[in-house]
C-alpha cells in the first residue's frame, strides 16, 4: 500500500508543470461594440438622428477562404451578424467579426447602405480551443488592442465617420 501511495504521489508531483499561458477553455471573443458618430458627434446608429444608418439596410460580409460572403444565419440571436442596442441612453453597434482561420487577419465589411462601406480587420489569439480577439483595425487604422491581464473585451470602440 505504501508503494502504491508513493508511486501515485511521485506521478502527481512530476506531472505538474509551470504554465504562465492562460487557459481560456473554449472562449470565443470575436464580437466588438462600436459607437459610430459623424464629425459633429451625431450618433449614426441612433434611429432618432437625422441621416442615421437604417438598420434594415446594413449588411455584414466576411471574407471566407478568399471569397466575400453575405452573412446570415437564422439560427442565431442576431442572424445578420450585427445588433444595434441602447445602453445608458446611447446607441451602439455590435458586430460579429470574421473568424476565418485560413488567414492571419480575418476581414469583415460593414455595408451601411448602398454607398458607404467600412473594413474591419481582426487579429486573434487561437489556442486551446479558444479564439480571443487581440487587435481590431477600422479601415486600416488600429482602433483597439487587448491589454494583457485586463478584462477589456466588452469595451465600446468610438468610430468617427
Automatic annotation (TrEMBL):
Protein name: Uncharacterized protein
Amino acid at each position: 500500500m505504501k508503494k502504491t501511495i508513493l508511486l501515485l504521489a511521485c506521478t502527481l508531483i512530476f506531472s505538474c508543470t509551470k504554465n504562465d499561458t492562460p487557459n481560456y477553455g473554449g472562449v470565443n471573443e470575436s464580437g466588438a461594440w462600436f459607437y459610430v458618430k459623424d464629425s459633429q458627434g451625431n450618433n449614426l446608429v441612433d434611429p432618432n438622428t437625422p441621416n442615421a444608418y437604417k438598420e434594415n439596410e446594413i449588411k455584414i460580409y466576411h471574407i471566407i477562404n478568399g471569397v466575400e460572403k453575405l452573412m446570415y444565419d437564422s439560427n442565431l440571436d442576431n442572424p445578420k451578424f450585427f445588433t444595434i442596442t441602447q445602453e445608458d441612453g446611447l446607441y451602439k453597434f455590435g458586430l460579429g467579426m470574421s473568424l476565418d482561420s485560413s488567414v492571419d487577419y480575418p476581414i469583415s465589411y460593414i455595408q451601411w447602405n448602398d454607398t458607404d462601406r467600412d473594413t474591419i480587420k481582426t487579429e486573434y489569439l487561437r489556442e486551446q480551443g479558444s479564439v480571443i480577439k487581440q487587435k481590431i483595425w477600422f479601415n486600416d487604422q488600429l482602433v483597439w488592442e487587448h491589454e494583457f491581464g485586463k478584462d477589456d473585451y466588452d469595451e465600446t470602440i468610438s468610430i468617427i465617420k
